[in-house]
Structures are given as C-alpha cells and as structure tokens.
Amino acid sequence: MAKRTDIKRVMIIGSGPIIIGQAAEFDYAGTQACLALKEEGYEVILVNSNPATIMTDTTIADKVYMEPLTLEYIAKIIRYERPDAIVPGIGGQTGLNMAMLLEKK
Question: What is the reported pLDDT for 91?
Fold first, then answer.
C-alpha cells in the first residue's frame, strides 16, 4: 500500500489506565503503532491518561499529552494540534468510545 502524502500528522488515542489482567496489550500495540508511523515519516501525537505506560515516553511519539481521556480534553488537543488523521482503535474500547463521541460533536 502506498504511503498517503496528504497525511502528515497522526493522533493516537491511548487506552488509559491499565487494569490488572487487561489492556497491557493495548500499550504494546500502541507503542508499535507509534514507532511504525514515525518510521514512515508521520508526526505522531499521542493522547493517553496513563503515566505508567511505555507509550508516553517522549521517544515513542513526537508529542505526548498526558490528559484525561474525555471529550473535552481530546477536542481541545485536536483543535490545537490539527491532526490529519486520528487512530482510535489502538486505545481499545476507550479510544473507540472517544471516536464515537467526537464524531457526534
């Protein structure tokens, strides 16, 4: 698949806090997604409320926002950063729920 040249900045919505026994896979997948997008030359903007994840390391994404995963905060970040694309699926159900709320707004 050819690289899309119309997309320069990609926002990834993380999964938030990890509950024991679940969601650690989202941390790993999110980290790999960030690294792959950066390798392809995209600027990666990460939003996640979990400070105990490798995803929020500043070497993983170009910009990291450690903010609550709420409609209000994510909408503010989108208005400020103006990403060309948003990847909510990496954040599991939390990311998908945020995408649905954003679409309705």
Answer: 84
| 44 part of a folded domain | yes
pTM over 0.85: yes
Report residue 29 as tokens.
Answer: 């997948």
Domains identified in the chain, total number = 1
Does the residue 34 lie in any domain?
yes
CA dihedral (51, 72, 28, 93) positive or negative = positive
17/47 Cα distance (integer angstroms): 12
Residue 79 sits at the vertex; the CA angle it makes with 86 and 50, to the nearest 5 degrees, is: 60
Does 3 fall in a domain? no
